[in-house]
Amino acid sequence: MKNFIVAAVLLAGPAITGCKRVPSGEASSKEIVIGEFASLTGGTASFGQSSHKGVQMAVDEVNASGGVLGKPVRLVVEDNQSKAGEAATVVRRMISRDQIVALIGEVASSRSLEAAPIAQQNKVPMISPASTNPKVTEVGDYIFRVCFIDPFQGAVLAKFMLERGWKNVAILTDVKQDYAVGLTEFFESYLTKNGGTIVSDQSYSSGDKDFKAQLTSIRASNPQAILVSGYYNEAGLIASQARELGLTVPLLGGDGWDSPSLVQVAGNTMEGNYFSNHFSAEDTSPAVQNFLRKFQEKYKEEPDAMAALGYDATMLLFDAMKRAGSTESDGLRAAIASSKNFPGVTGSITLDEKRNASKPAVILTVKDGKFRYVETVTP
Amino acid sequence: MDWGNFTQQLVNGLSLGAIYALIALGYTMVYGVLRFINFAHGDVFMIGAFTGLYAHSWLKPVFAFLPDYVSGVVTLLAAMAACALLGVVIEKLAYKPLRERSRLTALITAIGVSLFLSYSAQLLFGAAPRGFPELIKNHTHSLPGGASVTTEQIVVLVVTLLLLLALRYIVMNTRMGLAMRALSNNPTAASLMGVNTDAVISFTFALGSALAGAAGIFFALLYQAIDPFMGILPGVKAFVAAVLGGIGNIPGAALGGVLIGMVETFVVGYSNRIGIPSGYRDAVAFVILILILLFKPSGLLGKSDREKV
To answer: pLDDT tens-digit profile of B244-265?
Structure first.
């Protein structure tokens, strides 16, 4: 009979708005099941791999110390292959089949935006580790994030350029990604309001490999800096093709650049470029150093910002469960919403009434193939 | 009008067009002898790029003692040979058993083969894009007017031209070429005259796939990153190029490829001036396809029946 109800909900789920989920089965009384959807393979695999390591580390840690509310936590992970459409499918599956009580994901805003309405409809609290597009949490009161948002990030990048006297800026935007389009919009409005000029506005789509036509056009407009608003794969290719065309001005990007792959394809053509990020591994605060040490012990590699945010999102969720005293959806939602001064690796997290975290950003530069800390910008 | 900028876009468009042209030849030759579109051709192009990547890393110890151009040529030949073999195997396993069926059956099978190849590649090589080694020392050379051209672009253009001339020689001046032309003209008559149809079809697939393999290496050289799904869009655009030039017509496919590469580059490069956002880059080829099917379905050079292969 239970199977029948599950199947019926699966089929009718999208049609009935606000339908109640099937009451938790017997399995969930012995353990707490949380879901994570991530881009473990595909174009932005590095994001999914990193954030998943952070989430897994948080789950292992909490289970080692006796679990949450006296029950062990079981993590269900689904891969969306970095593909549009896949995120919705796997999230529906986790909600109906695994009956997860909360959802962690995604890094890319486009895919968070795809899953958010499903989580909202089924009243499953969802915490995005690193989606910075403001629209994500606007979907509804069950959707949260533990990172800053793009109106802030865009302003940080614009301010950084203006402070260095780079007033004539060219933009290259990935029009397939909500994150990139949003970031460009906020960057542009801050820059032009504060005395800067956009001398060339070009675009591309995720997966493109040839950027020479756009870069030639940008070169003709003589910019002092170029904003590459998109993800790391394309940013790496853009850097090397820009240098081939003799463009030597610095390239700047947002947190979408944060991946070891950024320098693997681009090699030394990435040197001297800047990007904004959530955290720097060079931060000497005990929280960061402690996280670095634990992460290196577990995975034998250095964590990036996506790993730190995945860890923070999961830890914040566990903290809320403890405060709520249960994993019942309304109570858990309220507990997450009232998170205040939660000590995260990426800074102190307080969620505002729009369910966003207000946190400082760091600017990093690429030097000798490594990401080096430049400065911190507070909101 | 900024001429330096214009020349630069011309160079960009020409090198992209050369790659489309090489792929388009495979579509057009197979269409010439079998009258069907081999949609798996774009994936053969992808396999070519991956073969190059692995051949280069396996032979690295040997290449250390040799000059740059030798390793480049060996990598190129390895990719072409592997693709030729793959083309023949695909034809024998997937298309030959269906030769007597309707052409739609073969077409749908081709789509199946295409998916099989790209997902097998994803399993084997992983889904994340991979960097491609610099096969030749790359320098940027300045052209008058502020434009520049890289060593890689020059090599790609010159080798593409050589491959096109070699292909023309094979088709026009060898017995196998004659057999290909005969088969394309009238398959029944050709086989009655003693043309070994199976051998000619295999040869056509080998030739077309080898060119796609070369295109894979060139694409990887120019754009530095390869992934299992890299073949889909260039493959479809090259198909449009073949239709634009007149499907079944060899010079037409080369011309169509260069044109598509040029138009695409110029639409993106001058997007602000002509008012088409550069995000429409991939739509350009398909708009051309629609226009050509509406106004000149036989393609630009489609009428010259004598050269059909």
So the answer is: 999 888 999 999 999 999 999 9
Interface of B with A in 229-258 (CB under 8 A): 229-230, 233
Residue A3's pLDDT is: 54
B243-267 residues labelled b (16+ CB within 10 A) or e (exposed): bbbbbbbbbbbbbbbbbbbbbbbbb
Say which CATH topology domain A150-277 has. Answer: Rossmann fold (3.40.50)
Q: Tell me, yes or no, if B2 comes closer than 8 A to chain A by beta carbon.
A: yes
- pTM comes to 0.85
Residue B131 is nearest to which of A42, A200, A264, comparing CB atoms? Answer: A264
Please indicate whether, in this complex, the C-beta atoms of B265 and A41 are within 8 angstroms of each other: no
Beta strands in chain A (DSSP E): 32-38, 73-79, 102-104, 126-128, 143-145, 168-174, 197-204, 225-229, 251-253, 274-277, 342-344, 347-349, 361-367, 370-377
CATH number of the CATH domain containing B196: 1.10.3470
Superfamily of domain A2-148+285-359: Response regulator (3.40.50.2300)
pLDDT in tens, B118-141: 999 988 998 778 889 888 888 888
Quote the pLDDT of residue A195: 93
B181-204 confidence digits (pLDDT tens): 999 988 889 999 999 999 999 999
